[in-house]
């Protein structure tokens, strides 16, 4: 970790303190990123996985809960961020070889961090999960960066349409080898078959071992999520329209995407694990509307007094995501006695003795456990925020 420049960090979701409050900075993007990361920590770290309020769980298969919005929001943010990092280079019109190499390096680092999280603490390469959250972020960042640098916004719209329709055709019309007709079931859809064929079951999501929610084929519609963010950023950076007009048209576009997603859903269900095409439209529309609202509040009206906690998280998004996962697995190495004669890791021990006894409803206790972790991370990240320390990727 070290002090870094804006160009070095915007594409991965981290920004230096010195630039986070500069005039002209898109504060709303940092705030949106911080809210998303805080939500990610909240749903990924309940005090008790057996007792969770429904909004803090993923949909079992089809459908969309608030928790299912977090990952597409983050990919949308990646798409917005890369435009702010690369637009100047694109406008210069010169050779892009050097910047493409930097983009490739950052994508490789993100992918490597994902592998590290999968390997830790056993480092068993025979069963390491290849795909995952950071792997998908890396691939979307790489693909959307290249597309943004090499194409116009009109071409990007056509690519989004092509990705979503093409993915729907593949998933709903192409027969699945060994299973028969196309289907959208967890273990027998085309994406699951492709992941098992390329990675083998040993390298898939350990909770299923037969399919992966961040599988390879699902990267195609995930690129569309990132490109929706890129188009949003290009609209916000466009010279001419007044801020009010920009916000109004973003709400119109976001509402249109939501409506399209809902209209398409009866034929191709909204589904996070499949990253279905209607899911891209629905979540992309919500992300667009959310950023538009924050842009109006923070950047246009200047109401920023409440934003500090979100900025603290937003400038070190990748750091807190990685360290929270690493610490959780490290705590699991220490097996301690729990109430009722059970044993568990250090995190479970702290929760069972320090939080759970004080709440009658175990779901409330579980939520408080997750919220406590957010507060702890806030103090750590707040100190880093003051020092201007961020994770350089």
TrEMBL record:
Keywords: Acyltransferase, Membrane, Transferase, Transmembrane, Transmembrane helix. Residues 25-172 form the Heparan-alpha-glucosaminide N-acetyltransferase catalytic domain. GO terms for molecular function: acyltransferase activity. It comes from the Bacteria. This is Acyltransferase. Pfam families: HGSNAT_cat (PF07786). The chain crosses the membrane at residues 69-87, 99-120, 126-149, 156-174, 215-236, 248-267, 279-298, 310-328, 367-385. It comes from Hymenobacter artigasi. InterPro entries: HGSNAT_cat.
């Amino acid at each position: 970790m070290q002090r870094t420049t804006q160009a070095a960090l915007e594409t991965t979701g981290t920004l230096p303190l010195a630039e986070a409050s500069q005039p002209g900075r898109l504060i709303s993007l940092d705030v949106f990123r911080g809210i998303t990361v805080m939500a990610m920590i909240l749903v990924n770290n309940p005090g008790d996985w057996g007792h969770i309020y429904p909004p803090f769980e993923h949909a079992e298969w089809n459908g969309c809960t608030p928790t299912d919005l977090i990952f597409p929001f983050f990919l949308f943010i990646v798409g917005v961020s890369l435009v702010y990092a690369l637009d100047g280079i694109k406008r210069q019109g010169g050779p892009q070889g050097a910047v493409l190499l930097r983009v490739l390096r950052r994508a490789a680092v993100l992918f490597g961090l994902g592998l590290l999280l999968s390997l830790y603490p056993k480092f068993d390469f025979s069963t390491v999960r290849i795909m995952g959250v950071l792997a998908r972020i890396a691939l979307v960042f790489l693909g959307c960066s290249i597309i943004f640098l090499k194409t116009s916004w009109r071409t990007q719209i056509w690519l989004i349409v092509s990705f979503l329709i093409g993915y729907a055709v593949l998933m709903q019309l192409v027969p699945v080898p060994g299973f028969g007709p196309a289907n959208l079931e967890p273990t027998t859809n085309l994406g699951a078959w492709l992941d098992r064929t390329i990675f083998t079951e040993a390298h898939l999501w350990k909770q299923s071992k037969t399919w992966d929610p961040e599988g390879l084929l699902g990267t195609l519609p995930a690129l569309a999520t990132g490109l929706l963010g890129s188009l949003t950023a290009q609209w916000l950076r466009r010279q001419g329209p007044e801020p009010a007009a920009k916000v109004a048209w973003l709400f119109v576009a976001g509402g249109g995407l939501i409506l399209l997603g809902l209209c398409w859903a009866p034929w191709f269900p909204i589904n996070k694990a499949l990253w279905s095409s209607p899911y891209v439209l629905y979540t992309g529309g919500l992300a667009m509307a959310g950023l538009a609202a924050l842009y109006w509040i923070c950047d246009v009206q200047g109401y920023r007094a409440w934003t500090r906690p979100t900025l603290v998280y937003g400038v070190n998004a990748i750091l807190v995501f990685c360290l929270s996962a690493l610490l959780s697995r490290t705590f699991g190495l220490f097996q301690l006695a729990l109430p009722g004669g059970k044993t568990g890791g250090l995190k479970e021990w702290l929760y069972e003795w320090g939080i759970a006894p004080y709440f009658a409803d175990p779901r409330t206790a579980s939520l408080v456990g997750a919220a406590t972790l957010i507060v702890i991370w806030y103090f750590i990240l707040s100190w880093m925020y003051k020092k201007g320390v961020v994770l350089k990727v």
